[in-house]
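Lab notebook: predicted structure, single chain.

Context: the supervisor wants predicted structures on file for every construct in the current expression panel, including those that have not yet been purified. This is the next one on the list. No modifications to the sequence; it matches the entry in the shared construct table.
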Amino acid sequence: MKRWRCILCGYLHDGPQPPYRCLVCGAPREMFELLEPPEKV
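Prediction complete. Output recorded below exactly as produced.
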């Protein structure tokens, strides 16, 4: 599963795509960045 972070407030969202609006600050979808999964050792 992908994890997205709002670059304005730091809200984390799990899903195939970022939400249309941030549930915390209301930022639009474009303000989310995809977080890379940690490398497995």
